[in-house]
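#onboarding

Welcome to the new folks! Below is a worked example of what a typical request in this channel looks like: someone posts a single protein sequence, and someone else replies with the predicted structure as tokens. Don't worry about understanding the tokens yet, we'll cover that in week two.

Example request:
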Amino acid sequence: MVRSSFIVSAFALMSAPAAAASYSATLSTPVTGRFIARDIVWNCGAAACQGSTQESRPAVLCQSLAKHAGHVESFVVDGRAFATSELERCNASAKAAPKQGLASN
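Example response:
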């Protein structure tokens, strides 16, 4: 009985869809619009950029945002903010100024 319960539990876990992580970032120079950077669609407004994805490499996503939109002031993944050292690594990829002419919806 225990063995069959274990097998059923294992199949349930394998077939469960992965939950998408939510991301939020504030930029030194805010941009507005919607764009794709790496594996995430960012929706940016005057206050922050937000997106969600099943991608599990937050550092890479932060770097791609910095590359596309400029210096990142804060980066939060599912409620956990990046530490100062993580932001420094992220911003090593930042462009001097954000791209102009982002598509807006």
